[in-house]
Amino acid sequence: MARNQESPYDDPFCRRGQAGRDSIADDVLPLNAGLAEDEQQFQRGRKRVAVRRVTVPRKTASRALKLALAVLLLAVLVAVVYNSYNFAVHSWRFRIRTEKDIELANDAPNSRARVLETMHESIGRNVFQISLARVKQDLQRISWVETASVSRIWPNHIRVMVKERTPVAFVAIGDRIELIDAQGVLMEVPPGTSSEYSFPVIRGMNESEPLSTRAPRMKSFMRLMRELDEGDDGKQTKMQYSHNVDEVDLSDPDDMKVMAKGGSGQILLHLGNENFLRRFMVFLSNVQKWEQERGKLESVDLRYGREIILNPYMHAPPPRPAPAVAKAPAPPKPEPAKAGKPRPQPHKKRK
Asked: Is 159 helix (H, G, I), strand (E, B) or coil?
């Protein structure tokens, strides 16, 4: 195709020159320039659109302001608590220095040494870094401690209060003797205090038994001691018959075996599991008569009401018969005088 070689200057617009082009550029054409009249009626009007302003209700603004203030106060409170916690935890003022900073509030002679030994781990630590619940658990693991409470004292002291258990009897565990309370908890005998207790010795228990097994047995033991001291009706008796009991065997819950003091030594009594005082009184009332008839007794079974089984001591010598009372010899009777010849009486002369 042949290129159009016509000069651009032939165009009347180009022939205007630079001045003509500048005048056209300076003219501002309307937006509807070159449009027919029928097309202009479809154009959007030039009226300015009013912008609607949204106003926040006063109630909503008040709530937002209160919420902002609450968040600000909360942030300030968190900052104060955080700084106070760091100061309390890391300051030397709240550190336990010596044993004098640990106070044992009440008297605990049997567990004082163990309590102070347990609390010795807290020396050198901050009082706010010590777990009071954990210390309480460690104290209650001591056999003599029944309950314990631990509290902080400003600024660097710890106060400990313990309640010791009350022993009610000795208990034979293997080859050693320990103390036991009414709940069945075993306690070691403090050095030099064994002579301060006057309890019977319980047999039939071992250390491997759980507390749930020892507790019911100790309940039966306490009922036995209570009946012997207070009677069946709970009234205090004049005689404390529990002092006559040396040992109690709790191995059989249906047969309470008691080693009591008899006339010639200790006698094993089978009391069953009820009517302890009545059966014990039967023994005390008849033991001397039984020993006179049967000799020394090894055991007495009182579980069958009026039928009492006496078991004599096998190695005891047979009872000696009661010594006969020697009668004093009768005084000799005086022998009657022998009849002699009659004397002749003189005859009177008759006058």
From this structure: strand
User: Which residues form the domain of 76?
Assistant: 65-92
**pLDDT tens, per residue, the chain with 351 residues:** 445 555 555 555 555 555 555 555 555 555 555 555 555 555 555 666 666 666 778 888 888 889 999 999 999 999 999 888 887 777 888 889 888 999 998 888 899 999 999 999 889 898 888 999 999 999 999 999 999 999 999 888 999 999 999 999 999 998 899 999 999 999 999 887 766 788 999 999 988 899 999 999 999 999 999 999 886 555 555 568 888 999 999 999 899 999 998 877 899 999 999 999 999 999 999 999 999 888 889 999 999 988 999 998 876 555 555 444 434 444 455 454 444 444 444 444 444
Could you tell me if 113 and 181 lie in one domain?
no
Exposure on the CB side of residue 90, measured as CA atoms within 13 A:
6
Q: Are 228 and 275 in contact (CB under 8 A)?
A: no
Against a cut of 0.85, is the pTM above it?
no
Looking from the CA of 140 toward its CB, the CA atoms found within 13 Å total 11
Residues 130 and 262 in one domain: no
Residue 174 lies in a domain: yes
Does 137 map to a domain?
yes
Residues 247 and 285 in one domain: yes
